[in-house]
From TrEMBL:
<dbReference type="InterPro" id="IPR011006">
    <property type="entry name" value="CheY-like_superfamily"/>
</dbReference>
<keyword id="KW-0902">Two-component regulatory system</keyword>
<feature type="modified residue" description="4-aspartylphosphate">
    <location>
        <position position="51"/>
    </location>
</feature>
<dbReference type="Pfam" id="PF00072">
    <property type="entry name" value="Response_reg"/>
</dbReference>
<protein>
    <submittedName>
        <fullName>Response regulator transcription factor</fullName>
    </submittedName>
</protein>
<dbReference type="GO" id="GO:0032993">
    <property type="term" value="C:protein-DNA complex"/>
</dbReference>
<dbReference type="Pfam" id="PF00486">
    <property type="entry name" value="Trans_reg_C"/>
</dbReference>
<dbReference type="InterPro" id="IPR039420">
    <property type="entry name" value="WalR-like"/>
</dbReference>
<feature type="DNA-binding region" description="OmpR/PhoB-type">
    <location>
        <begin position="124"/>
        <end position="218"/>
    </location>
</feature>
<dbReference type="InterPro" id="IPR001867">
    <property type="entry name" value="OmpR/PhoB-type_DNA-bd"/>
</dbReference>
<feature type="domain" description="OmpR/PhoB-type">
    <location>
        <begin position="124"/>
        <end position="218"/>
    </location>
</feature>
<dbReference type="GO" id="GO:0006355">
    <property type="term" value="P:regulation of DNA-templated transcription"/>
</dbReference>
<keyword id="KW-0805">Transcription regulation</keyword>
<dbReference type="InterPro" id="IPR036388">
    <property type="entry name" value="WH-like_DNA-bd_sf"/>
</dbReference>
<feature type="domain" description="Response regulatory">
    <location>
        <begin position="2"/>
        <end position="116"/>
    </location>
</feature>
<keyword id="KW-0804">Transcription</keyword>
<dbReference type="GO" id="GO:0000156">
    <property type="term" value="F:phosphorelay response regulator activity"/>
</dbReference>
Length: 223
């Protein structure tokens, strides 16, 4: 999963990025509203953490512009304001949830997990496909109850496919959602990670749909 953090406080920005990367996300970052708006308008994010009080373009304007342009990614709004009217304004502008500063990082992580899974139609932190179970809260993958150790890239790949069970996901889409902006993107690396995942899982849950991409949870022309 790929996230965008838009926060002008450099210390808080870095804390959010570090925590989200530690939780297994690929993260891009911006320090003002204009840059944040541009990234959100041109890159496919699974969720955005957005401060309401930003230089150049405030958070409410950023959200409103995204929504008018048809951008539907979930947005978690960060606000230092205590007035309930500001929180209402954020939700009305198109934010999906908000956290008031100061906050505990665990709360931000929990709300991001909820936004990502709801956007994909999942109600629970745990997803299953055959004997494979993935727990987004704990960041754990098990097969028949046995823990499987994955790298961060392998985990993100499996989590994305399981969040989109029953759908064919192209290599291009995987590259766009699994790597941050600075990563040397090469769709051929997806094949490598899929091969490693299949070997580590030891069960045939990831299918190759020839000419289209990969899927879990559906039948198809496997290769």
């Amino acid at each position: 999963m790929r996230l965008l953090v838009v926060e002008d406080d450099p210390n808080l920005n870095q804390q959010l990025v570090d925590a989200l990367k530690e939780a297994g996300y690929a993260v891009d970052t911006a320090s003002d509203g204009e840059e944040g708006h541009f990234l959100g308008d041109t890159e496919p994010y699974d969720a955005v953490v957005l401060d309401i009080g930003l230089p150049k373009m405030d958070g409410l304007t950023v959200i409103e512009t995204w929504r008018k342009d048809g951008r539907k990614m979930p947005v978690l709004l960060l606000t230092a304001r205590d007035r309930w009217s500001d929180k209402v304004a954020g939700i009305d502008a198109g934010a999906d949830d908000y956290v008031a500063k100061p906050f505990h990082m665990e709360e931000v992580l929990a709300r991001i997990r909820a936004l990502v899974r709801r956007a994909s139609g999942h109600a629970s932190n745990e997803m299953e496909c055959g004997p494979v179970r993935l727990d987004t809260r704990a960041g754990r993958v098990t097969v028949d109850g046995h823990l499987v150790k994955l790298t961060s890239h392998e985990y993100r790949l499996l989590a994305y496919l399981m969040l989109h069970q029953g759908k064919v996901v192209s290599r291009t889409e995987l590259v766009e959602h699994l790597y941050d902006q600075d990563f040397d993107r090469d769709s051929n690396t997806i094949e490598v990670f899929v091969g490693r995942l299949r070997k580590k899982l030891g069960v045939d849950v990831i299918q190759t749909i020839r000419g289209l991409g990969y899927t879990v949870g559906m039948t198809g022309d496997a290769g």
